[in-house]
Amino acid sequence: MTAPAKLIDAAKSLSFTQGDDTWRELRSRAENSLYFFNAVILGFADVFALEEETHIISHLFMQRTTGIPEIDTAPVQLCMWPRETGKSTCGTVGRSIWWACKHPNIAILIANEKEEIAKNFVKSIEFHFQSNALLRALFPEVIPPDFNKVEWSSTRATLHRTTGRPEATFDCTGVGGTKTGTHFDVIIGDDIISKEAMESARAGNWSLMERANRWVNQSKPLLSNAGNFPGFP
User: What domain count does the chain have?
Assistant: First the structure.
């Protein structure tokens, strides 16, 4: 899975032309490896210790290519990582961008216990499509020609598409929020159970846990027929 050094150097220096052999190789690698996409295209390996020996298995799980059908086809995923190891960065932000580059007509809902944190994920995603030169060069077809003429706000963002579906490419909500009349291909629940909820449950008060469970059950009908629900507690 390790990319040749010259390929990484070409990516970081943008020493290619759209459509040439290096461009096609980089794009193919990015499309087929979520780890490569996160580490190199989005540059997360320069931000924290994103290394193959510690992160490749979790990335294969998230992109559903473990080779185990029961795992790769499961409609619901649960990812549990130690704190400060890139769970939200790779699994929520990075994977959402990766999905959208591969499937620009997709609709993804990102949820967090607090709506404000979910909004921050959308802002991070928007940053890459607006400012990441490597991402923009490898996937020019998904970049809106004019960000002022598409839905592009603190809560919702829509890429350049080939369909006119009403849902945004990226949407967000807090636990308890509603999205009436919309259907999503993916719903990502990132830290939907807060530390407060866990502490309350330990003390015998399950109201916050029950609220989160109700929200999950009420959100399932928002999924399209082939949709899936990855979760990050």
Answer: 1
